[in-house]
């Protein structure tokens, strides 16, 4: 098993040997297979009750064959629920100025936003520009694009302005309640996976889990693979390895 190998071997497996020309990537099939295996598949945790209106339970009488079929169906559904979010490098800033029209300077005190709202166009390819009061016409920044796209193409659960819970001082409160998974789920909804805020919140969450040794909070969740990938790339996987060996995982 993976956890029986020395930590250096696992680091080399993920990052390649020092003289390797190409390091493995998060989405590589071999990496995904390893991360999936060490994530675990605890059906009780995957399908644990969530806070919602209480409803009477439903009971079914099944034959052994039907029970086996239902269990297999639950496993397949659990595997879909455990699909790992992508791990991407931070997107590069947009600083493109298209024109400087001094004749328009001072004509208004507000910015004007022009957005291509044609359907069936990938959001990353949408042309969004901003006319500044100074007359400058430029492409919208990533943060501006995210807010504008949320206006025209709202994503369920996402807010125009990020909730205060993502502030540094509030993260510590959430972590103190062992709600790391909830924080990552909320982050997944609010931010794009290559945004600086998404990466910052994930890093802060992983750092707290590593510091406190609370790896089990993410085990058998879709976020465990991201935690492992973060620690491996930081070459700080020893604590996780010891935890896995102690639990005979």
Automatic annotation (TrEMBL):
Pfam families: MRP-S22 (PF10245)
Highest taxon, organism lineage: Eukaryota
GO annotation, cellular component aspect: mitochondrial small ribosomal subunit
InterPro entries in UniProt: Ribosomal_mS22
GO MF entry, a single one: structural constituent of ribosome
Name the record gives this protein: 28S ribosomal protein S22, mitochondrial
């Amino acid at each position: 098993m993976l956890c029986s190998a020395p930590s250096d071997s696992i680091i080399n497996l993920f990052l390649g040997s020092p003289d390797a020309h190409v390091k493995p990537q998060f989405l590589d099939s071999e990496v995904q297979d390893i991360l999936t295996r060490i994530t675990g598949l605890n059906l009780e945790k995957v399908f644990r009750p969530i806070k919602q209106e209480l409803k009477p339970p439903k009971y079914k009488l099944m034959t052994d064959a039907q029970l086996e079929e239902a269990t297999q169906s639950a496993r397949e559904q659990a595997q879909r629920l455990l699909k790992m979010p992508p791990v991407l490098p931070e997107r590069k800033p947009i600083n493109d100025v298209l024109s400087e029209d001094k004749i328009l300077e001072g004509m208004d005190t507000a910015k004007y936003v022009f957005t291509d709202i044609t359907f069936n166009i990938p959001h990353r390819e949408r042309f969004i520009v901003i006319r500044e009061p100074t007359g400058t016409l430029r492409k919208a920044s990533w943060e501006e694009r995210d807010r504008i796209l949320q206006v025209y193409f709202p994503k369920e659960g996402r807010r125009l302005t990020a909730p205060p819970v993502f502030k540094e001082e509030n993260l510590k409160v959430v972590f103190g309640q062992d709600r790391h998974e909830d924080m990552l789920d909320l982050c997944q909804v609010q931010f794009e996976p290559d945004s600086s805020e998404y990466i910052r919140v994930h890093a802060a969450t992983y750092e707290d889990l590593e510091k406190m040794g609370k790896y089990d909070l993410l085990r058998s969740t879709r976020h465990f693979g991201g935690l492992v990938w973060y620690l491996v790339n930081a070459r700080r996987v020893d604590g996780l390895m010891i935890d896995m060996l102690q639990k005979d995982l």
